[in-house]
C-alpha cells in the first residue's frame, strides 16, 4: 500500500515510508499503542538530544509525519485505502515544532499565523520528556475552582484535578480561556507505569468572541473537537465550496470519561514570541445538566448535518455545473439575438431614397434641400394639370363678369 517518494513542506522527511513501519506497529494497532510508540520514538530522535547525530532530525520528522497520519482516524482510513495519494488529494498539512524552527523561521511562522494561515504546532519535546519522567510541578485545581497564570512560550503549567466517584459519574469539564487572546494548548496527561505522565489529548485554543479558549469534556458520550485547519485549507483550494468542508474538521475526542482519582492537565504556551495569559477551571457537569443534555443533542445534530452536506455537495455540484452551462448558453444566445436584431435594423434602414439621391448628387448635379419635391413640380405632367386649373378659373371669372355687364 505504501509508496516511496519525495514530500513537500519544510517539516517533511525527504522520503516516505509506510507509517506503520516507521512507528514499528501493526495495521490493527490501537490508538493507544500508536500513541505510545510515537512518544518513545519522538523522545529518542529529538534533535535537542542528538546534536551529534544529523540523521536524528530526519528520523524525528519521519516519526512526526507518520504519527500525524495514524493518529487521525480519517487520515488513517484514507491511507489504508489508497496510500499517500489519497492524503495528497486532501491537501495534507504538517505540524511543526516551534522550539526547533530557529528565529528566522519562527518569525515567518508568526507572520503567516497573523495573516490567518493555519499553522499546527507540536508540544515541545522538552515538556513531554519532563512529563514522562514525572519531574514537573503539579498545582492542585479542585473541582469548582479556577486558577490564573502566565506561561512562557514552549513551556507548560501543570494542574492536578482530583475527582470523586460521584463527580466521575456525572462528568467533568476542564476549560481554559484567555481574555488577552493568547495562543495556547490545553493538554491532558495519563499516568504511565513508571510514574510519569504521557500526553493523551491536546486542544488548540480557538478565538470565540473576544477571547481564545479550549475545552475538554468528559461527559460519558462522544464529544467532538473542531480542527479549523481543515476548513482553512478547503477555503484556499475552493472558496465557493468550502462551506461543505466546514464540518469535516469535526474529530472525535479519544477520551470521553474519567475515573475517580487525580488527573493531570496543563496549559502550554503556544505563542511565538510572548507568554500566554490564561484562566483554567474545572467543573462538575452535575451543575450543568441542562447544558450537558443540550450539548449531547447538538453534537448528534451536527454529525447528522455533516452526512447531509456530504450528499448535498454532490447534488450542489451537479446543479452548479448545469447552472454554469445554462449561464454560458444564456450569454451566447443573447449575443446571437442582439446581432440578429441589429442586422434587421440595418436592413430596415436601407429602405430610403435619401441615400440614392445623395449618391446621385455626388456625381456633380446641382443640389437643393428637397430634391424630391422639386423634381415633382418640374415634371411635364404636373405642368399640364396646373395649366388646366388656371384656364378653368379664368373662364369662370370672365363668365361672372359678362353676366354682370348684361344686367347693367
Automatic annotation (TrEMBL):
<dbReference type="Pfam" id="PF00226">
    <property type="entry name" value="DnaJ"/>
</dbReference>
<dbReference type="GO" id="GO:0005783">
    <property type="term" value="C:endoplasmic reticulum"/>
</dbReference>
<feature type="coiled-coil region">
    <location>
        <begin position="288"/>
        <end position="329"/>
    </location>
</feature>
<dbReference type="InterPro" id="IPR052812">
    <property type="entry name" value="Plant_DnaJ_domain"/>
</dbReference>
<feature type="region of interest" description="Disordered">
    <location>
        <begin position="1"/>
        <end position="29"/>
    </location>
</feature>
<feature type="region of interest" description="Disordered">
    <location>
        <begin position="348"/>
        <end position="408"/>
    </location>
</feature>
<dbReference type="GO" id="GO:0009958">
    <property type="term" value="P:positive gravitropism"/>
</dbReference>
<dbReference type="InterPro" id="IPR018253">
    <property type="entry name" value="DnaJ_domain_CS"/>
</dbReference>
<keyword id="KW-0472">Membrane</keyword>
<protein>
    <recommendedName>
        <fullName>J domain-containing protein</fullName>
    </recommendedName>
</protein>
<keyword id="KW-0175">Coiled coil</keyword>
<feature type="compositionally biased region" description="Low complexity">
    <location>
        <begin position="359"/>
        <end position="368"/>
    </location>
</feature>
<dbReference type="GO" id="GO:0016020">
    <property type="term" value="C:membrane"/>
</dbReference>
<feature type="domain" description="J">
    <location>
        <begin position="18"/>
        <end position="83"/>
    </location>
</feature>
<feature type="compositionally biased region" description="Polar residues">
    <location>
        <begin position="349"/>
        <end position="358"/>
    </location>
</feature>
<dbReference type="InterPro" id="IPR036869">
    <property type="entry name" value="J_dom_sf"/>
</dbReference>
<dbReference type="InterPro" id="IPR001623">
    <property type="entry name" value="DnaJ_domain"/>
</dbReference>
Amino acid at each position: 500500500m505504501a509508496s516511496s517518494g519525495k514530500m513537500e513542506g519544510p517539516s517533511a522527511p525527504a522520503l516516505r515510508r509506510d507509517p506503520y513501519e516507521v512507528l514499528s506497529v501493526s495495521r490493527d494497532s490501537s490508538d493507544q499503542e500508536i500513541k505510545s510508540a510515537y512518544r518513545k520514538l519522538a523522545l529518542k530522535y529529538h534533535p535537542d538530544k542528538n546534536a551529534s547525530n544529523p540523521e536524528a532530525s530526519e528520523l524525528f520528522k519521519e516519526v512526526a509525519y507518520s504519527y500525524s497520519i495514524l493518529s487521525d482516524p480519517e487520515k488513517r482510513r484514507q491511507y489504508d485505502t489508497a496510500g499517500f495519494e489519497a492524503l495528497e488529494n486532501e491537501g495534507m498539512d504538517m505540524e511543526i515544532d516551534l522550539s526547533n524552527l530557529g528565529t528566522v523561521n519562527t518569525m515567518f511562522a508568526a507572520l503567516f499565523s497573523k495573516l490567518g494561515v493555519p499553522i499546527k504546532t507540536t508540544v515541545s519535546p522538552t515538556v513531554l520528556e519532563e512529563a514522562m519522567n514525572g519531574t514537573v510541578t503539579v498545582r492542585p485545581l479542585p473541582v469548582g475552582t479556577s486558577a490564573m497564570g502566565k506561561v512562557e512560550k514552549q513551556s507548560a503549567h501543570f494542574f492536578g484535578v482530583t475527582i470523586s466517584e460521584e463527580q466521575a459519574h456525572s462528568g467533568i469539564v476542564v476549560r481554559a480561556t484567555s481574555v488577552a487572546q493568547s495562543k495556547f494548548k490545553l493538554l491532558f496527561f495519563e499516568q504511565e507505569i513508571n510514574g510519569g505522565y504521557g500526553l493523551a489529548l491536546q486542544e488548540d485554543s480557538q478565538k470565540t468572541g473576544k477571547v481564545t479558549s479550549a475545552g475538554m469534556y468528559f461527559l460519558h458520550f462522544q464529544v467532538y473537537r473542531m480542527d479549523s485547519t481543515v476548513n482553512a485549507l478547503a477555503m484556499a483550494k475552493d472558496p465557493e465550496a468550502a462551506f461543505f468542508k466546514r464540518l469535516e474538521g469535526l474529530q472525535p475526542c479519544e477520551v470521553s470519561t474519567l475515573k475517580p482519582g487525580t488527573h493531570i492537565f496543563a496549559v502550554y504556551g503556544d505563542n511565538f514570541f510572548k507568554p500566554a495569559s490564561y484562566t483554567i477551571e474545572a467543573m462538575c457537569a452535575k451543575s450543568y445538566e441542562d447544558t450537558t443534555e443540550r450539548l449531547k443533542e447538538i453534537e448528534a445534530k451536527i454529525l447528522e448535518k455533516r452526512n447531509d452536506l456530504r450528499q448535498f455537495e454532490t447534488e450542489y455540484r451537479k446543479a452548479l455545473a448545469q447552472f454554469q452551462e445554462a449561464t454560458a448558453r444564456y450569454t451566447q444566445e443573447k449575443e446571437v439575438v442582439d446581432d440578429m436584431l441589429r442586422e434587421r435594423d440595418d436592413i430596415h434602414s436601407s429602405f430610403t431614397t435619401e441615400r440614392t439621391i445623395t449618391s446621385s448628387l455626388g456625381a456633380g448635379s446641382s443640389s437643393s434641400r428637397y430634391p424630391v419635391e422639386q423634381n415633382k413640380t418640374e415634371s411635364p405632367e404636373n405642368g399640364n394639370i396646373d395649366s388646366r386649373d388656371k384656364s378653368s378659373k379664368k373662364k369662370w371669372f370672365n363668365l361672372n363678369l359678362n353676366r354682370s355687364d348684361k344686367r347693367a
